[in-house]
């Protein structure tokens, strides 16, 4: 129940749904049970308190039978910038025993391309009694990827107002998940296939990382050539088709420094620009301190 999972659970619970938030941390479970939030996010404390007091939100250590399962767990990388899917695999293994026919499984965790199909394959192994999408003409459950695209400090607003990209393993998977989100999302739900949805989130953050790296590299050049970078940017951005970002000490946040590596891991030989951007931004703090 992190910075995406808890706000999502609280928002849905405040719309009248019965929601169970699962976490392995006793401190988190205890806090939510008391109607408190362990996170700092505007208005989240009131939303959690209302959801718990209404009886629509409770916290638990294990999943229980439900109609919809939303997986929102960390996806860090291991040594060598290799994606670590162990948290997702553990979540899938934990929820598999309580799955039933007609369930929706939604993956919100930012994931390397192909992860949603891996989840389908893991579920097929854990629950051979259920027909999985894309394996046979008939399917008992519906699996889709819909990456979170929220900014800390604006999570509650953006969960509702942002557009959603929903990639199903099959078209009916995407349609059913879109129908679910449309009950509380004001933004447009764009349906596609699972791999495209996975790629979209990674491309968005690689794009931002690359643009930041360009600005940071220009700042290094300006320093070397004794040019005022702020004056240069002000003048360069007067061009009607130029909008160079402001340089800084690199990148921060939960996603931008991690997600580009998921694309690199998929095809190291085809991603020299993405890798160069990561190198520039990783080295930038050394020029600031």
Automatic annotation (TrEMBL):
<dbReference type="Pfam" id="PF00984">
    <property type="entry name" value="UDPG_MGDP_dh"/>
</dbReference>
<dbReference type="InterPro" id="IPR036291">
    <property type="entry name" value="NAD(P)-bd_dom_sf"/>
</dbReference>
<feature type="domain" description="UDP-glucose/GDP-mannose dehydrogenase N-terminal">
    <location>
        <begin position="2"/>
        <end position="177"/>
    </location>
</feature>
<dbReference type="GO" id="GO:0016628">
    <property type="term" value="F:oxidoreductase activity, acting on the CH-CH group of donors, NAD or NADP as acceptor"/>
</dbReference>
<dbReference type="GO" id="GO:0000271">
    <property type="term" value="P:polysaccharide biosynthetic process"/>
</dbReference>
<dbReference type="Pfam" id="PF03721">
    <property type="entry name" value="UDPG_MGDP_dh_N"/>
</dbReference>
<dbReference type="InterPro" id="IPR001732">
    <property type="entry name" value="UDP-Glc/GDP-Man_DH_N"/>
</dbReference>
<dbReference type="InterPro" id="IPR028359">
    <property type="entry name" value="UDP_ManNAc/GlcNAc_DH"/>
</dbReference>
<dbReference type="InterPro" id="IPR017476">
    <property type="entry name" value="UDP-Glc/GDP-Man"/>
</dbReference>
<dbReference type="GO" id="GO:0016616">
    <property type="term" value="F:oxidoreductase activity, acting on the CH-OH group of donors, NAD or NADP as acceptor"/>
</dbReference>
<dbReference type="InterPro" id="IPR008927">
    <property type="entry name" value="6-PGluconate_DH-like_C_sf"/>
</dbReference>
<dbReference type="InterPro" id="IPR014026">
    <property type="entry name" value="UDP-Glc/GDP-Man_DH_dimer"/>
</dbReference>
<feature type="domain" description="UDP-glucose/GDP-mannose dehydrogenase dimerisation">
    <location>
        <begin position="195"/>
        <end position="282"/>
    </location>
</feature>
<protein>
    <recommendedName>
        <fullName>UDP-glucose/GDP-mannose dehydrogenase C-terminal domain-containing protein</fullName>
    </recommendedName>
</protein>
<dbReference type="GO" id="GO:0051287">
    <property type="term" value="F:NAD binding"/>
</dbReference>
